[in-house]
Amino acid sequence: MGLTMGLNLVLLVAMVATNILALYHLTASSFQPPTSPKAPHPVPDVLLHQLHTIRATVNKLTRLQQSPGSDTPASTTKPTVPSDLLLYSHLAPIASACHNHPELLHKYMSYIPFSLCPSDSDLAETLILRGCHPLPRRRCFSRTPQKPTSSLPHNPFPSSLPSSNVIWDKYSCKSFDCLNRLNPNMGFDLSQESSKFMSYKTELDLPIPQLMQIVKSAKSVLRLGLDVGGGTGTFAARMKLHNVTVVSTTMNVAAPYSEAVALRGLVPLHVPLQQRLPLFDGVVDLVRCGRAINRWIPLTMMEFLFYDVDRVLRGGGYLWIDQFFSKRVDLEKVYAPLIGKFGYKKVKWAIANKTDAAGLKNGEVYLTALLQKPLSR
Ligand SMILES: *[C@@H]1O[C@H](CO)[C@@H](O)[C@H](O)[C@H]1NC(C)=O
Ligand SMILES: *[C@@H]1O[C@H](CO)[C@@H](O)[C@H](O)[C@H]1NC(C)=O
Question: Among its keywords, does the record have Transmembrane (predicted)?
Answer without folding.
Answer: yes
